[in-house]
Design goal:
51% helix; two-stranded antiparallel ribbon; 2 strands; 111 residues; alpha+beta; Arc Repressor Mutant, subunit A
Length: 111
């Protein structure tokens, strides 16, 4: 994995969650997915900033959905992972798996 393709932990989390959530991936669903799957609280603003940054890097694409009454007529911006994003996640997963294979098995002592 080259340094130009490096993602930080939060970027990787957001990119992975877009893949997990699928067609309904927008800011709030991603926040809820992180809370539900990772039991982690994240700020909606930081999710949006990261989504836009990943889109600028070419790992995501976005499109506007229709306006909804419950959102006061505002539209949702939906995100979809690109083939480049999928390839990067696979590369990161492979690198991590390879590294874990080099480590000794973790042994925990029971008290």
């Amino acid at each position: 994995m080259s340094r130009t393709n490096y993602l930080g932990e939060f970027e990787e989390l957001i990119l992975t969650m877009v893949l997990v959530v699928g067609d309904e991936a927008y800011g709030n669903t991603i926040v809820k997915a992180i809370k539900g799957h990772q039991h982690r609280e994240v700020n909606l603003s930081s999710v949006h900033i990261t989504l836009y940054r990943l889109e600028e890097k070419g790992y995501l694409e976005s499109s506007m959905g229709g306006a909804t009454k419950e959102r006061g007529g505002r539209k949702k911006r939906y995100f979809k992972i690109t083939n480049t994003g999928k390839a990067l996640l696979q590369e990161m997963k492979d690198a991590r798996t390879s590294l874990w294979k080099l480590t000794p098995q973790l042994q925990f002592k029971t008290v």
